[in-house]
Amino acid sequence: MDLGIRGKRALxxxxxxxxxRGCAEALAEAGVDLVMNARGREALExxxxxxxxxxxxxxxxxxxxxxxxxxxxxxxxxxxxVDILVTNAGGPPPGMxxxxxxxxxxxxxxxxxxxxxALIKALxxxxxxxxxxRVVNITSQSVKSPIPQLGLSNAAxxxxxxxxxxxxxxxxPSGVTINNLLPGIHDTDRAASLDDGVSKKExxxxxxxxKKREASIPARRYGTPAEFGATCAFLCSQHAGFMVGQxxxxxxxxxxxxM
Length: 259
Ligand code: NAP
Hints:
Elements: E1 9-12, H1 18-29, E2 33-38, H2 41-55, E3 59-63, H3 69-78, E4 84-87, H4 102-130, E5 133-138, H5 151-171, E6 176-183, H6 189-202, H7 206-215, H8 225-235, E7 247-250
Parallel strand pairs: 1-2, 1-4, 2-3, 4-5, 5-6, 6-7
Helix pairs in contact: 1-2, 1-8, 3-4, 4-5, 6-7
The structure holds NADP nicotinamide-adenine-dinucleotide phosphate.
């Protein structure tokens, strides 16, 4: 299917690896020029070059921390005039509800709620003026099925979800859609570190922790960054213009719910 976005430009945050990289690749395959971002410059430059070589699109890189005001400033400057924004950042650490104090919550809110909101506020007005835009926020299955040990993530992502619910309906008349993409477990470094945590807690190997988790998913496997990216590219396509303010779950059936 032609996604109808060839020649458009996208900012994809936190995209040298994992789900962000999957989104960057799928958009590049659809002919979209990219601004890519991560903190680590070496992996970012390597990912950008691989994407240029494979898909022939223009890729600009911005090595910075998307969760800081300085990082956001750099990204906003490099991304002036973009048609598509994919927000993303690393997820907060797991723990017990008694572990976290105010500073932990502020860090989680900065990373997974206030950073996407700052980028939306800076880049969506231009999209509205031009009459077309797409925003996809990478959130988590925890929005629909909160995960007990990920209380920081549950809290911050619930805040972003509420903001998007209202904002998406305010910008839709100008041809801009904002939707959230909710990963269940996917095969990335983040999943490996969560498996390591289970392995330590339960005294089993990381491989066994993964097998146990896979057995709990109806699809009996982890999702791939490529599958995730393909769904993101569809949400950014011409065909998804009537999808507004949705929370799209990609979890292999793990969440047993109808909404
Ligand atoms: P990942 O494998 O850890 O990928 C992280 C990518 O983001 C890397 O390119 C990393 O590069 C970059 N990054 C991390 N923090 C950054 C920051 N502050 N500023 C700029 N770039 C940053 O993570 P993932 O699995 O793709 O997950 C992406 C998001 O989805 C996370 O918020 C995660 O919590 C959420 N999620 C993931 C899963 C899953 O199963 N994978 C499930 C539910 C939710 P640098 O380290 O060089 O900055």
